[in-house]
Amino acid sequence: MKRSVAALLALFTAGVEAKTYEVFTDLGTMYLETHEQLAPISSENFDRYVNEGFYNHTIFHRVVEDFVVQGGGFTTTLDRKDTHDAIENESTNGLRNLRGTVAMARFSDPNSATSQFYVNLKDNPHLDATPESPGYTVFANIRCGLAVADAIAKEETRQFESFTHLPSNPVRVIWIKPIETENHGYTECKRQQNRTDP
Fold first, then answer.
1. Pairing of strands 68-75, 117-120
2. How far is 79 from 90, CA to CA, in rounded Å?
3. How many CB atoms sit inside 10 A of residue 166's CB?
4. What is the mean pLDDT of residues 75-93?
5. Is the pLDDT of residue 67 over 50?
6. How far is 46 from 67, CA to CA, in rounded Å?
7. By C-alpha distance, which of 2, 57, 50 is closest to 26?
8. Topology of domain 17-196, per CATH?
9. Of 13, 41, 138, 159, which has fewest CB within 10 angstroms of its CB?
């Protein structure tokens, strides 16, 4: 009986590969999908912050065209938000920092990521783990709405105190929430995306 239950659990967890989230910003909506199996710690960490409403009304505080847009840590008044403890780096999970992927931002300590994340605007192989560098953990992909990240990246930026690429006009994450893939907004986004794909 125990073996049967274990087998059923294994079968169930094998199918839990991704959760989809709606990221509603001042410049439009992105839909991201997490990699629950390949980056379980980072995915669970992100989900925890989402369910707490942590990201609501935060800003993209680091915006570098043709590189990344980064957010998830500061309010519109540039106050750093209190976070949970840092998580373990999962950068050797086989996921690479390619255009459209979402990864955990961190300090120099590989295991210092908390709430902040970034969207890769292009392939950034220098952010991947190597024998010489711990790299940055990719845990999700933008499945639809990557043009929104591109639009954010075109915002004029300035240097202000410790912020080196702060948008002159704040771009907010109004909310991030989990959704079903049958969600109307997501379905419509995919339909529009398929129309424009070559």
1. antiparallel
2. 28
3. 20
4. 98
5. yes
6. 22
7. 57
8. Cyclophilin (2.40.100)
9. 159
Complete DSSP assignment for the chain? -HHHHHHHHHHHHHH----EEEEEETTEEEEEEE-TTTSHHHHHHHHHHHHTTTTTTEEEEEEETTTEEEEEEEETT-PBPP----B---TTSS----TTEEEE---SSTT-B-S-EEEESS--GGGS--SS-----EEEEEEE-HHHHHHHHTS-EEEETTEEEEESS--EEEEEEEE-TT-HHHHHHHHHHHHH--
Q: Is the pTM of this model over 0.85?
A: yes
Name the residue type at position 88: E
Nearest 5°: the CA angle 75, 106, 47 is 65
Given the structure tokens 């976070």, which residue do they identify? 83
Rg (CA), the chain: 17
Within its chain, how far is the Cα of 66 from the centroid?
17
Rounded Cα gap, residues 64 and 186, in angstroms: 26
φ/ψ of residue 160, rounded to 5:
-145, 115
Rounded to whole angstroms, the Cα distance separating 150 from 123 reads 14
To the nearest whole percent, how much of the chain has pLDDT over 70? Answer: 90
- Backbone phi, psi, residue 164, to 5°: -95, -25
* 8 A C-beta contact, residue 21 and residue 32: yes
